[in-house]
TrEMBL record, chain A:
Organism annotation: Micromonospora thermarum
UniProt main location, coarse: membrane
Name assigned to this protein: Phosphate transport system permease protein
Signal peptide coordinates: none
Domain ABC transmembrane type-1: 123-348
Keyword ATP-binding recorded: no
Positions of the UniProt region annotated as Disordered: 1-32
Keyword Acetylation tagged: no
InterPro entries linked: MetI-like, MetI-like_sf, Phosphate_PstC, Phosphate_Transport_Permease
Family matches, as PROSITE patterns: ABC_TM1
Subcellular location: Cell membrane
TrEMBL record, chain B:
Residues in ABC transporter domain copies: 5-247
A Pfam family hit: ABC_tran
Gene3D superfamilies in UniProt: P-loop containing nucleotide triphosphate hydrolases
Organism annotation: Micromonospora thermarum
Protein name per its UniProtKB record: Phosphate ABC transporter ATP-binding protein
Coiled-coil residues: none
Superkingdom of the organism of origin: Bacteria
Highest classification ranks of the organism: Bacteria, Bacillati, Actinomycetota, Actinomycetes, Micromonosporales
ATP-binding as UniProt keyword: yes
NCBIfam families: 3a0107s01c2
Alphabetized GO MF terms: ATP binding
Stored InterPro entries: AAA+_ATPase, ABC_transporter-like_ATP-bd, ABC_transporter-like_CS, P-loop_NTPase, PstB-like
């Protein structure tokens, strides 16, 4: 306790939590901090032996370590800034050369003498395929996770959990090839069936051909993001305090009611994080979609007709034959994808942050 | 509102391990019964078998018969959730639902019972919180997280949550062991008030507490580690603490063993 460098630093560390503690109902940590502050005072001067306080050390391991960690932190910023500058520098000339509106033009001809390209259709395809994939994957993943954590016998749960983690280890190009060669057949049959009976819905309209559609891409994506969401939310569900589960059961809850009362609310931030990680993978997924989508440029909600494209898939498909402007255009599209991912992440954090009062006191 | 509990030949297992053997005892309505005994003697196991919480643990099972006003709660046709609604439980550590507000915690049990109307929930919440001597402390912050209260308040919140569903019996598993003396006193006072309405069974390590709060006391013990716990003596609290009939009880309450 005597080696606090100075009193003001001590008061600083003790002071912040105390002022927070005024508004914060838990107050426990604040009170501890307050106490340690008061007790450290007398014992600190006791060690000083009644003489003058020792001088704060100017240099030492503390400083060196602080500098080291700060350098590591700064390095990240430097790398990010370097990447950002590079991307913007490459993208801007291409965007200047574009003779059409970058946001609304539906097509990608950046290599022509008069470059024409637009991000709208690609961004739309990216968001649509990912959203559809999550729509399919999240309920299934949460169902599997709950089964593994709360219903399955322990041994079965462990084995199944392992198999699902194995699914995450399959390379995406394998998923892409499988989707293109095998999975396309049932999806095509299903699409034809949907078209026959539900063609009055714009989602399932059109005259074909069917198969290499947003639906196929989204389903393959759903299978790919399933393991991440499953294993993360399973971990979260397993962490629910037994005391809370028993509290719900003792109130007369059935197992499902117990899960609704204790497990799901407790795991909410974790579930959101898991879904966001899955969404991140879906948005950025490249090769599987490049292989399974029909690669057309157009904004359409039709899910079953051949077509669809995403930003990442387009980069994979178009990079090989791109010239200088073409590469710049692709980099610009990458910036847009980055922005979409950023918005998604910020939204997720905002959702978690809004409920922090309840989730933090859970810890 | 309060019912008689009769246990006959209750034996409980954790997998292959027999935790308690042939427990026979009758708990009268509107009394406080204390279960005391050394660690590992099966008092908590017995308590948890009264509202069928024992079987929640994997591999755990109960034999024998436990009736509440003559109805066997282990009957195959009995809905286990109905048993637990009738026999509420307060745990050793305060366990309010961390994601819920104080109000939500209190009405959680009613919500599980399908009560939706706000006016009924409001009324029940206030009544339960008043019964738990917590209303005045929390009435202005019902929307705040339940986990933000002090330990003693949290435990009273858990008691409010338990009694909000108006059970017949309230089981308490060392409800004060995680609390400071003042909070303990508050909860003991509360038990005196609650026994007007409920049958209360409390497990406690604290013999002074058993002597203070209970009408009847059951002393559990084991021969040695690994043996099942047995009921050694069950009598009026005053008799147990002044003139026990079994030597082992006397040794335990005078501090000579356990």
């Amino acid at each position: 306790m005597g080696d606090y460098p100075s009193r003001s630093a001590n008061a600083g560390t003790g002071g912040t939590p105390v002022t927070e503690g005024r508004e914060w109902p838990a107050g426990a940590s604040a009170r501890v901090a307050e106490n340690s502050f008061h007790t450290s005072g007398p014992s600190g001067s006791g060690l000083g032996g009644g003489g003058a306080l020792p001088r704060a050390r100017r240099f030492g391991a503390e400083r060196a370590f602080r500098g080291l960690t700060m350098a590591a932190g700064t390095a990240v910023l430097v790398v990010i800034a370097a990447i950002a500058i590079f991307l913007v520098a490459k993208a801007v000339p291409a965007l200047r050369a574009n003779t059409e509106n970058f946001w609304s033009f539906e097509g990608w001809f950046p290599n022509d003498a008069e470059p024409k390209f637009g991000i709208g259709a690609l961004a739309f395809g990216t968001v649509l395929s990912s959203a559809l994939a999550l729509l399919v994957a999240v309920p299934i993943a949460l169902g599997i996770a709950l089964y593994l954590s709360h219903y399955a016998p322990r041994r079965l749960g462990t084995t199944l959990g392992f198999l699902i983690d194995l699914l995450a280890a399959v390379p995406s190009v394998v998923f892409g090839l499988w989707g293109r060669e095998v999975f396309i057949n049932p999806v095509r049959d299903f699409s034809v069936w949907l078209n026959e009976y539900f063609s009055w819905l714009p989602l399932f309209g059109g005259d074909g051909p069917f198969g290499r559609s947003i639906l196929l891409g989204a389903l393959v994506l759903a299978i790919m993001v399933l393991p991440i969401i499953t294993s993360l939310s399973r971990e979260v569900f397993l962490q629910t305090p037994t005391a809370n589960e028993e509290a719900a059961l003792a109130l007369g809850a059935t197992r499902w009611e117990m899960i609704r009362t204790a497990v799901l609310p407790y795991g909410r931030p974790g579930i959101i994080a898991a879904v966001m990680l899955g969404l991140g993978r879906a948005l950025g997924e490249t090769i599987a979609l490049a292989l399974t989508l029909g690669i057309t440029f157009g904004i359409s909600f039709n899910l079953i007709e051949n077509g669809g494209n995403t930003i990442a898939a387009n980069i994979a498909n178009a990079f090989g034959e791109a010239n200088e402007t073409g590469r710049g255009a692709l980099i610009a599209s990458g910036l847009v994808l980055f922005a979409i991912t950023l918005i998604v992440n910020i939204t997720a954090r905002a959702i978690i942050y809004r409920r922090r009062e309840f989730t933090e006191s859970a810890a | 509102m309060a019912k008689r509990i009769e246990a006959s030949n209750v034996t409980a297992y954790y997998g292959g391990f027999k935790a308690i053997e042939n427990i026979n005892l009758t708990v009268e309505p509107k009394t406080v019964t204390a279960l005391i005994g050394p660690s590992g003697c099966g008092k908590s196991t017995f308590l948890r078998s009264i509202n069928r919480m024992h079987e929640v643990l994997p591999g755990a099972r109960v034999e024998g018969s436990l009736t509440i006003d003559g109805q066997d709660i282990y009957d195959r046709d009995v809905d286990v959730t109905a048993v637990r609604r009738m026999i509420g439980m307060v745990f050793q550590r305060p366990n309010p639902f961390p994601t819920m507000s104080i109000y939500e915690n209190v009405v959680a049990g009613l919500r599980l019972n399908g009560v939706r109307r706000k006016s009924i929930l409001d009324e029940a919440a206030e009544k339960a919180l008043r019964s738990a001597n917590l209303w005045d402390e929390v009435k202005d912050r019902l929307g705040k997280p339940g986990a933000g209260l002090s330990g003693g308040q949290q435990q009273r919140l858990c008691i409010a949550r338990t009694i909000a569903v108006e059970p017949q019996v309230v089981l308490m598993d060392e409800p004060c062991s995680a609390l400071d003396p003042i909070s303990t006193l508050a909860i003991e006072d509360l038990m005196f008030q609650l026994k007007d309405k409920f049958t209360i069974i409390i497990v406690t390590h604290n013999m002074q507490q058993a002597a203070r709060v209970s009408d009847r006391t059951a002393f559990f013990s084991i021969e040695k580690t690994g043996d099942p716990g047995r009921l050694i003596e069950y009598d009026n609290t005053q008799k147990i603490f002044s003139n026990p009939s079994v030597k082992k009880t006397e040794d335990y309450i005078t501090g000579r063993f356990g």
